[in-house]
Design a protein that fits this description.
Shape: elongated
Bound molecules: iron/sulfur cluster
Largest sheet: 10 strands, mixed
Helix content: 25-40%
Strand content: 15-25%
Length: about 350
C-alpha cells in the first residue's frame, strides 16, 4: 500500500519531504491540509504546486477509509461504518451534547478480548488499526458534522471506547493521539482524550509514564474475581488484585485535581445489586483509591447477548449506595440505542438509516 500521509507526524513528514528533495514548509502545508483543513486528497491542497500534488497522488495516499454507511439517531448521535482499504470494518460514533461533542473511535477492527456483554467480542480480532486509520476516523466524522475545511470546534472530546482494546494497539494509539494534538492540526489536546482499557495491566504502568498522556478509564464491571472472570475473561490473565495495584500506581502519578475513571457496565440481575455496590466501594477502599469516579453504564439491549438492561430503580439505588459510601458515581445516559451505536452494541446489525 502507498504510504498514508495522514498517519505521519509533522516531524515525520518533514523527513519524508527532505528525502524527496522538497522544502520543509511544503511538509507543513501538507500537514495543515490533512489535519487542520481536514482535506482527504492531495488534489485539494491547492497551496501546493500542481506538480507536487500530482507527485504525491502518484506515490502516497491521503485517505484509506471508506464510509460504507451512516446512521443518524433521533438523539443526534451518528454512527459510521467504514471499511479499511483491505476490507476490514471500522466503527466510529459521534455523540453531540449541549456544550461539547464526543467522538468514540476504534483502535482495532474487531477485538481479541471476550467480554461477555459486548457484541464486538463476537468478531474476534480482525487486525490492529494503523495510526492513519485512527486519525482518519476523527477527520471523517468532523467533516461530516462540520463540513470540510471548517475549523475543528474547541470542545471536541475523544474516547477510545469503540471497537478494540486500545492498550493492545498501544504504540499506534499513542502516536495517533500525538498527531491529533498538534496545534497546527486538529489540536485536540491529550487532556480531552480518554483511553479505556479492559485491564491490560502492564500497559497501565507504561501509560502512567507518558509525559503528555490522555485520561484513563478502566473497565471493571465486577468487584470479585469470580464475577469478573465470567464477564471479562481478561481477568484470568490479570486478576483483580493485579489490576487494582496498577490502578493504585496510576493514581499516584495523577497531577493535582486529576482523577481517573472506573467503568462499570450494569447488567440487569447480574451485577447491579446493593450488595455489589457495597462490594465495589469496599474494593476501592481496600486499595485506598480515592481519586476515582465510577461511570455506571446501564447495559444496552442487543439481541445476540443473554443480558438485559438493569431496572432504572436498581441503577439509581446502585449509584446512591456508592455515593452514600463516599464514592463519586455517574450514570452514563445511553445514546444512539436506536441505531445500535450505544456501548456494547457496536458490530450489531445495521439499524435504520
Ligand atoms: S468491551 Fe471492549 S475490550 Fe471488551 S470485547 Fe468489547 S471491545 Fe473488546
Amino acid at each position: 500500500m502507498m504510504p498514508h500521509l495522514t498517519g505521519f507526524s509533522r516531524a515525520e513528514l518533514a523527513e519524508i519531504f527532505s528525502e524527496l528533495g522538497e522544502a520543509r514548509y511544503r511538509a507543513d502545508q501538507v500537514f495543515r491540509g490533512l489535519h487542520r483543513r481536514r482535506l482527504q486528497s492531495f488534489e485539494e491542497i491547492t497551496d501546493l504546486p500542481k506538480a507536487l500534488r500530482e507527485k504525491l497522488s502518484e506515490t502516497a495516499t491521503a485517505s484509506v477509509l471508506k464510509v460504507e454507511s451512516k446512521y443518524v439517531s433521533t438523539d443526534g448521535t451518528r454512527r459510521f461504518l467504514m471499511k479499511t482499504h483491505d476490507g476490514f470494518p471500522v466503527e466510529t460514533v459521534y455523540i453531540p451534547t449541549e456544550n461539547r461533542d464526543t467522538i468514540c473511535f476504534s483502535s482495532q477492527s474487531g477485538c481479541p478480548l471476550k467480554c461477555d456483554f459486548c457484541l464486538t467480542a463476537k468478531l474476534g480480532l480482525l487486525r490492529n488499526l494503523t495510526v492513519g486509520e485512527i486519525v482518519e476516523q476523527i477527520v471523517t466524522v468532523l467533516n461530516d458534522v462540520y463540513g470540510i475545511g471548517e475549523e475543528t470546534p474547541h470542545g471536541t472530546n475523544l474516547v477510545a471506547m469503540g471497537a478494540g482494546e486500545p492498550f493492545l494497539n498501544f504504540e499506534n494509539l499513542i502516536n495517533a493521539i500525538d498527531i491529533m494534538s498538534d496545534e497546527d492540526g486538529l489540536f485536540i489536546v491529550p487532556g480531552r482524550v480518554t483511553v479505556s482499557t479492559a485491564g491490560i495491566v502492564p500497559k497501565i504502568y507504561e501509560f502512567a509514564k507518558l509525559a503528555r498522556r490522555p485520561n484513563l478509564a478502566i473497565s471493571l464491571s465486577a468487584s470479585t474475581d469470580e464475577m469478573r472472570n465470567l464477564l471479562m475473561p481478561i481477568n484470568k490473565r490479570w486478576k483483580l488484585d493485579d489490576l487494582m495495584q496498577a490502578a493504585k500506581a496510576f493514581e499516584k502519578t495523577l497531577k493535582r485535581g486529576e482523577r481517573f475513571t472506573f467503568e462499570y457496565v450494569l447488567l440487569g440481575g447480574v451485577n447491579d445489586s446493593i450488595e455489589q455496590a457495597r462490594a465495589l466501594a469496599a474494593l476501592l477502599a481496600r486499595y485506598d483509591l480515592v481519586r476515582v469516579k465510577i461511570n455506571l453504564i446501564p447495559h444496552n439491549p442487543a439481541e445476540q447477548l443473554d443480558y438485559h438492561p438493569p431496572e432504572p430503580e436498581r441503577v439509581a439505588a446502585f449509584k446512591n449506595e456508592l455515593e452514600s459510601l463516599g464514592v463519586s458515581a455517574y450514570v452514563r445516559t445511553p445514546r444512539g440505542r436506536d441505531i445500535y451505536a450505544a456501548c456494547g452494541q457496536l458490530a450489531a446489525k445495521a439499524g435504520s438509516q
